[in-house]
Amino acid sequence: MSGLRARLAQGRLILMVGGEAMQSALNFALNLALLHALPAKEFGVFALVMVIGGVGLTYIRALTAMPAAILIGQASRPGRAAIHDVTFGSAALLLSAAMAASVAIVLSAWVESGAWAGGAFVGLWAFRSHLRTVYFADQRQGIVGIGDLAYTLCGSLTAAAIWAGADILRNVLLILAAANALAIAVMLLRARRRVRVSFGRRTRRRYLGIGRQLAWSALSVTTTNLQGQGMALMVAALAGPAAYAPIAAALVVFVPLRIVATALANMKQPELSANLARNEIRTVRRSVPAWMAAMALGGLAYGAAIALVLPVMAPGFTETSSPLVLALAWIFYTLTMVSVMPRIMLEILGEFRSITMITVGSAVLGMGLSLLILLTEPPSLALIGGVVSELSVLAASGIVVWLRINQSRHGRVQASPFDRAPKGGATPPDRGHRLFALEPDERLSEQGTAR
């Protein structure tokens, strides 16, 4: 049985990473093309849009996708999983719309056209990320793979926008927004069930019932963003988008490592949450360090491959990013990969205060070092601050997780931080074939039938 579980886990990870790899290849090729097609300022703006979008994904994950994945993974029956799907899906839709409007307003100060295209891209990207995480938690990763394929195929049309040469930045953002919309539609159609959305009293009460946990989650992700993205935002603010371009170009090369880390988090968080719910502490103790070692080896192997392949595939790349900056980006993302397991374990254990303290301390350390480098050295070397910050996060979070798991010898480990999560059955069976349905409050009764 353990061998079968291992093979299934490997198959799921391969499928997940395959979908992420398609998107990563598209983004890598797109960044290389835009690096030569756009002026430094506009490429820096595009890179910052991607950073802002990535930050938006962290909030979607913290406030909707992550609690949904944990609770769906622990659900004892389909009814409870369905009610979580409704509650957090509704919140995700609202949050994504707010992100789209906010990003459009910010971009209007940087670009003359394309601000709303960028906002739509970020908002749709965020909602697609929520759906992907929920489907992963529901063991429906095949649907996610089909959606990723649709996104990649549609996103490849950006080549035509670059070739046309007119308002490249706006048109690329429009195509990426359309690609996310297509992927969302494909996933919903493939799932053969509409996404129920409710903003009624009961849904609000369910969501706000875990408000304290969500507040800590939001605070922890805010400090994590300051720790992880503070260096990029500081360089852009103090030295301008053009100064950030060499760092962005180097980070693009190693984005696949972050993609793999995201896929691993989507796969392992529901599983580890279920393990703790069943008090399978020994399984957790084995799994966490094993996957950390696997991620470290994967990062080292990828860096070695890039060192061999990049000079052949893109011989002029070092004109934009020096070998030192590329090496720093490699270390940065490898540390990010290794730290993903301690991070998701802290979330499962409800250690949001610990996450906040760790990331605040690491952000102060990393951003302080980056500021010192910006004042005395070339801006591209500010990435050193990011590396130091990520290393401190890995060390501190690993220590906290180790201490908490070892405490299980004297008692049961808390299985979920969302102990006041909404309970009850699912929404009624589907009626009709609409993708979205606004459900009246009384139809979300906790006495509903299973999906």
From TrEMBL:
The keyword Transmembrane applies. The chain crosses the membrane at residues 12-37, 43-65, 86-107, 113-131, 143-166, 172-192, 213-237, 243-267, 288-312, 324-342, 354-375, 381-403. Keywords: Membrane, Transmembrane, Transmembrane helix. Signal peptide: none annotated. Residues 414-451 are annotated as: Disordered. The keyword Membrane applies. It comes from the Bacteria. This is Oligosaccharide flippase family protein. It comes from Methylobacterium soli. The lineage of its organism: Bacteria, Pseudomonadati, Pseudomonadota, Alphaproteobacteria, Hyphomicrobiales.
